[in-house]
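Handout, page 2. Input:
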Amino acid sequence: MKVRKLISFFVYLFFAALVIFIGYSVYVYVTNKPPVEEISRARESLATAKNKKAGRYASETLREAERLYKWSMKEWETQNSKFFIFRDYALTRDLALKSINKSTNAGNEAKSAKDKLQTRVESELATLKKQITKFEKYYEHLALSQSILKSYHRGKTRFLEAQIEFDKNDLQEAAKLTKKASEGITTAEKAAHIKLVEFYKNYPTWEKNTKLAYSLSKKGQTVILVDKLQSTCTILKGGKEFKTFQAEFGKSWMGDKMYAGDKATPEGVYKVTEKKSRARTKYYKALLINYPNGEDQRRYDRMVKSGEIPRRTGIGGLIEIHGDGGKGVNWTDGCVALENKEMDVVFSHCSVNTPVIIVGSRQPIEDYLN
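Output:
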């Protein structure tokens, strides 16, 4: 009897344990579901962040989001390898939620960074455009060195490339190109400005000679006034500008002529010494002026004596106002070139001894750069 009771007790105990185990298993199965939704949301959040260019503009935050997502997936795999009643998805779920949070932050950071970069690059492109406009207006036509021009054109090319990348919405590449463009253009602009300032050191003399030109004209003389910076040749009559034409000069026109072969157009007060036409000139028509005058000769002698000019180098001569111009560039060996039809006008209004006054500029540097 006792044995039967004992057996019954153990059977009861077994079934009770079995019921408890089954109940617990059902509870675990029902309550400990895999974090499928969280994992799916984490994956979608990563995709959204990448679409917002978080890889470019919030790379560290995105990398952390990806790290958390991968860890979550690995933890999920670990839990799935266990018998179902021993699985615990709490860490998997927590990692997925943290990944979602990081992905969201990465997307927001990317949008903010992109907006800031877009504003910055847009502003820099606008500044560069102004610099280019300024350079082309005030400096590009100067007698600049190849290194200055090369720096400018390289910078302008980078600017155009940056503009293309900006329009394509590749802001980071646009920013890199904008920086290179700024370096080239700014370097060229500074060097060109230094050269212009150096050129303007002779302005007091130019100003004096310009006043002389108008004064002689008011006294009844026809005067030829040449402005190298403005590339003009003006006929003055009665103290007023009668005719003004575009002129071309020597390749190294910035600065006074010092010696033969320097490709510079002289500055000073001269006069016509000879009128040439037909077979007497190879340049259609020409007005020979008295370069070197006394002042040119004295300066040349001082420079030879000081060693600034080698003794074997001559002072040069045969400076003319002549035709065959209109090429659009400064190409002569130091002469003033005009288009033939304009040379006809100047030629007809000049005679031997007509004053020819050549200045670097009639206006001060402040007015020129205004």
